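quick one, 261 residues, struct below
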Amino acid sequence: MPQRVPTPAYAAAGTGPRTVLFLHGIGGNRGSFAADLPRLAAGWRALAWDMPGYGASPPIRPLTFAALAEAAIAVLDAERADKAVLVGHSLGGMIAQETAARFPERVSGLVLFATSAAFGGKDDSFKTAFLADRLAPLNAGKTMPEIAEQLTKGLFGPAPPEAARRQAIASMAAIPEASYRAALECIVTFDRRDDLARIACPTLVLAAEHDALAPPKTMARIAERIPGAAYRCIAGAGHLANFEQPAAFAAALDEFLALIP
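---
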């Protein structure tokens, strides 16, 4: 495939024969899965990207899901990986679905974590209101560091560790404003509901008990529509369950990866 997007920056660990690529959410970066890379290194080549426009990755203009899928494949090509398990959180889970739909031969498994098969409903007024709400503070002149704490409220369960809360705020604060705006404009375009039944690789749908953005009931319905998909729910955590309950997240991931040929 001719490469039409720049290769994103990414962290790597391990030299195992199989590859897993972590795709973070809209408020994340490669550090969102930093603890998982060395932990998986013994059996896997573990990769975690900075999404285009985030961290050290050059932006893509315009930012589209098609371009993001190509960018994910560019990472695999850079590592000479024929296939990978894609672990996608929130927006990253949407990118994982897009990549599986466009490049199914490059995806050996999917972990769809606290994500959705489409953004909002069929009514565009929801998307318009969402964008207006999220962009209002920036349009009023505030910076990402100034609004980071507010943006992370509601992303945790009832008793998040303070370190997890600080990590989320720091990650959000580090996003360039232009990249955050582009990600918001992109996310509202996503809809792969009709492709769920065509997913043919092993898939884990991973929810969190207190996730208001991707509620367990919604995640369970996604699992029901994917042939053979497994469903798990992390107790006591919210949307950032990998920050709040890293051991539970790791256990669910390890259980699933053990099933990948």
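The longest helix spans residues 124-139.
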